Amino acid sequence: MNTTSSRATQKTLDLSKKPVLLWGALLAVPLLAVILFAVVQPIKVVPRIGLAPGFIFTDMYGRQLTNEDLRGQIVIYNFTTTSCEAPCIDTAPLMQELQEFVKHLDTGGIPVTLVTISLDPERDTPERLQAYARKLNADPTLWHFVTGSPERLKQVVGGGFELYYTQDEHGVFHFAPMLAIVDGNGILRVRYKRGLEDAAIAERDLRLMLEEARNSSGAAGLVYEAAHLFLCYPTY
Amino acid sequence: MSEHEHEIQHLAGGEPGAETHPGNGSLHVEKWEGIWIRVAVAMTAVFIAAITVAAMSFGITVPGVTARINPMTLNDPGSPFANPGVRELAPGKYEVYMVAQTWSFLPDRIEVPVGSEVTFYLTARDVIHGLKIANTNVNMMALPGQVSVLRAKFDKPGVYNYICHEYCGYFANSPIGHHTMYGQLIVTAPDNTTETAQVTQ
Predict the structure, then answer these.
(1) Rounded distance between C-alpha atoms, residue B58 and residue B84, angstroms
(2) Are residues A84 and A24 in the same domain?
(3) Minimal CB count within 10 Å: which of A33, A47, A114, B81?
(4) pTM, whole model, 2 decimals?
(5) Residue A154 with chain B: CB contacts under 8 Å
(6) Is residue A235 part of a domain?
(7) B6 touching A (Cβ < 8 Å)
(8) Structural domain includes residue A168
């Protein structure tokens, strides 16, 4: 009787003294962790805007290029015409800068590709696109120049990438300078809707996307998901 | 007896053991009651955690803010707000750049075909405004310096009035006139039956 009683008391002691601490910790630790993560934002991610549009276009060698061909690659898009002159703001210099950046970047095995979509299929024939690519010093293994039928372009560039453009009575295209980056899963990650002052912001976002693609396997993937959940985005 | 009492006191630190010592100020908790207390505490913890997570994630921010813009530059060349209005991105897909100002909306008339997906980009030029399109779930804030974005689909033809619902802000000695801000969204049917649709409604 004596021993059983004391054993029972021992048990009540363990359960009655620790609970406050135990349950308090159970409450406080995850809460603190969540708040800390959301405030400190230990990793930054580039937001996921939505699914990038699918397309079948023709490149400057007359070959087909589809969005599926570019799966697994981080793709930087710009939208222009080869005859883009002032007041049309040309995004080609930015793409050139990004090409040089990508060439000298250790991407850790993840290919980064550039795609220029011409809005003017009538004038921008494959030959003209080739001449344009030469003028821009484009590396054909890295940088594609594509175009398609006006209807398809409208669906992909207007409807999908949400770039508004028009053609006036002289056949001149009017559009805002825009760049977009799509990740290897075909998700549109960033859209610079009014172009960029310089390529630095695009380079930063590219680095972040490469880091995420490299590191987000296994348990670390959950941390990256948390970063998306808590909107740990870089500032624009 | 005194030996036994001493042992319990020593082990329990004078706290539990109410069964044997009802008078020592400790609380006796039944086994099942204890379990339920723990369940209740755990539930509270889960709820607080869920609210904290929800408050900081799922994109919950000041309604619709996705970008910032200097209100002084709204009319600058290259600014999409320089020519406010509706524009067709692709068949069935539209975007509306809208400026709320004292005391009007720019534009005050939007026309889209039925079934269109419309993205609204809204900002204010001067004070805080709002946009509510009656009989739709379009309800936004317009803050100077911020761009609110909302996507909506209009499946029913008809005329929808929109108003400002944010009655705050004082501007340059003029009387408050948010209630005079007004516009119309016209959702047209493919065979121009807008008028009849309105009548039947």
Answers:
(1) 30
(2) no
(3) A33
(4) 0.76
(5) 90-91
(6) no
(7) no
(8) yes
